[in-house]
Amino acid sequence: MSETNSAADVAAPHRYTAAMAADIEARWQDFWDAEGTYEAPNPTGDLAGDPELAAKPKKFIMDMFPYPSGAGLHVGHPLGYIATDVFARHQRMSGHNVLHTLGFDAFGLPAEQYAVQTGTHPRISTEANIENMTAQLRRLGLGHDKRRSFATIESEYYKWTQWIFLQIFNSWYDTDADRARPIAELVAQFESGERPTPDGRDWSALSAAERADVLSDHRLAYASDAPVNWSPGLGTVLANEEVTADGRSERGNFPVFKAKLRQWNMRITAYADRLLNDLDGLDWPEAIKLQQRNWIGRSEGARVDFPVDGAGSITVFTTRQDTLFGATYMVLAPEHELVERIIPAAWPDGTHAVWTGGHATPAEAVTAYRKQAAAKSDVERQAEAKDKTGVFTGTYATNPVSGEQVPVFIADYVLMGYGTGAIMAVPAHDARDFAFARAFELPMRCVVEPSDDRGTDASTWEDAFGSYDAKLVNSANDEIALDGLGVVDAKIRITEWLKEHGVGEGTVNFRLRDWLFSRQRYWGEPFPIVYDEEGIAHPLPESMLPLELPEVDDYSPRTFDPDDADTQPETPLSRNADWVNVTLDLGDGAGPRKYRRETNTMPNWAGSCWYELRYLDPNNGEKLVDPAIEQYWMGPREGQPTGGVDLYVGGAEHAVLHLLYARFWSKVLHDLGHISSAEPFHKLYNQGMIQAFVYRDSRGIAVPAAEVEERDGAYYYEGEKVSRVLGKMGKSLKNAVTPDEICGEYGADTLRLYEMAMGPLDVSRPWDTRAVVGQYRLLQRLWRNIVDEESGEVTVVDTEPGEDTLRALHKAIDGVGGDMAGMRFNTAIAKVTELNNHLTKAGGPLPRPVAEALVLLVAPLAPHIAEELWRRLGHTESVVHQDFPVADPAYVVDETVTCVVQIKGKVRARLEISPSITDAELETLALADPAVVAALDGAGIRKVIVRAPKLVNIVPA
User: Fold this and answer.
1) pLDDT number for residue 555
2) Pairwise CA distance, residues 672 & 167, whole Å
């Protein structure tokens, strides 16, 4: 018989059981919805008429967007949602106006994949999933303002996603002002001649296409031929994070190739310094800040130009410009735009055979190698492979300091995604360059004096020597000598020389690349962009938003032979000719014209880049957000110089991309004057993960965890011994436990308590269904302390509590309040349990002040039972908006403390004394204690060391 359906339950008709919990929870959830209990008033109108409410401090608390999965929730998903709910409830009871709500990030691949497989429209499956998850979340008693909830697939929402895209498209970054400005202001500069055009012609002399190209070089959202991860087998471009380390698609395991395709990009690199610097003012885990800093990857160095006959120069970025005299060859990324321009018709005389790859001409060699490199992922290309590959382009460049002709290679270990996509190779002092030089029999020159005994003849070395703590050697020409200088001084000197001679300058480089913003998919936000007959991109006017996603019969991108890299995407939208080809009047004075719509869609990141703002003002059809509302909830204030959400809780797996993208959008919107907050999330908290045991049979196949038996420390499934390891919880691993199961067996309040009691919130912990009963019993004891299980009557009495109970109560109030504010919910529950146990052991009916305080302490953690008990205690107002108890300091301090008395370092007595005792009083008591007198046995005393109230140390004469 289960814990929730025992004989005792039948004998005590008013005992707290799962059935009673279900009734209580459903009733109060209905009540909260009907009364709008969790609705947070906005400052426009609501607060103006309520001075008391207006005086309250605000608190904006958010969870990371959930995706409405068809599998629904397992018990690991609500961990963060319950935690923010507990925190929000405590903040509300502590006098804050709390905004806490939840929506759904509903565009993306899962729904599209399901549509492809079943023919079900993604909207239908997504809305069904949202309905299911909403019901599951409601059952947990989460105190969300439901008026503010939405899904990103609603056209009323993505209208503003498209609007923000247009704000970014119609902006440029003014480096002098260090902010974004409207593109119209840049056009005015070109028109007036204040800013010259790239080729010096008047702006009016440029054609429409030429002007569009010039502006595209400045716009914060722009289309370009970008190197992308192209998967023919999937028919779509993939983000880097969707490609495995072995260069295959995470979904489907298809080959992924590097290809150049016309794609939309966001110029996030313009904000690199601000994204880096503003991290200092955020209350984020240091580990997350470090990941963002590393992703942005700021490095100081120099730009150096290596002239190439007939092709201008190859520009490199290096952080070791001091080693320039040691550059004996160059390497371009295979995708570098200069490659095709510098290739000669034939190999130069004397070309080393190993450089050609066995090909008759440079063009053949480069083409073959490019195809080979395209089949590798960036991770593979950067791996420390034993064998380095590459091919000579047939061209030489000039080292600007030595005048030497150095061969130019292409090699896959150089990426377009960092620096300029070109490097000067200094093989004596770089491990990868050393390996490449050995493979291709290239010269090496030592320019940094080794600290070991290897000497300066690099041709005899077995590995490269790299050091920042060394002197320069072999580094001089007729105009400059670096020999004898340390690395730091040599960098300064050579950088000055490069600038003086017009062949380089000191600069800062970032690892951060512009954000690839196109996807060849159906289930995403359409771009509000059309192209005229010349191929020029035009933004749709705001009056034409939202541009709604059209209905299509085929949701699949066209797929190809997985190994055929020479293919191009064909998107689902491109097959809808009536939608793609339109005649529009854009209101630009050109009248109705024929246009072609953009047929890519936005990535799944788009909707989550700004959803915090929509929570503030979800029904505003005229503005992104009312400025007064945004200022109230997210504006800068003391301790939050860049503004933002007060608390943002989610998994650490989103440490870089989502957070970085959202920060970028906030900064653009702030620069353009649309919002006051320059950062979206002031405080970030990463919750841990609820794990579960995975059981596998002899074949390694996961078996249902719920059907595994434990016998003598071993585990069996259908009589066969199985292995057990701790891992993720999920349907595929057959170890998922749904919150519905636990709610049905014990009630939602028990589930809430168990998840919060499992351990510190930021630490991963294993799920154990058998342990849930412990929190269920706590609620039963709580109920029993207030309600008679036989009659159902409240048993509290209107008397004053005793001294011991007052001390236990106020210590609990003090501890639980501090733990709640610090999100230490596991220790808060331990303190509530300790207090409840004290009251149970004390026996007799509870004094009303104690019972009411106990219910208020429990209310944030177990809101349903708290609401029920509060009402049974005679209150007509919801417990949700009651004041959290405040501890009386007089009862928090211990009445006595134990003082240890030592003689010659040995404990001779223990005294129970007042915490406020003076040193003199304590010394007198210690010397008078009989045990101390006996231990001294008449001996004199040389010294008494007193550390009131905990220690007295007596040193005999």
Assistant:
1) 87
2) 8
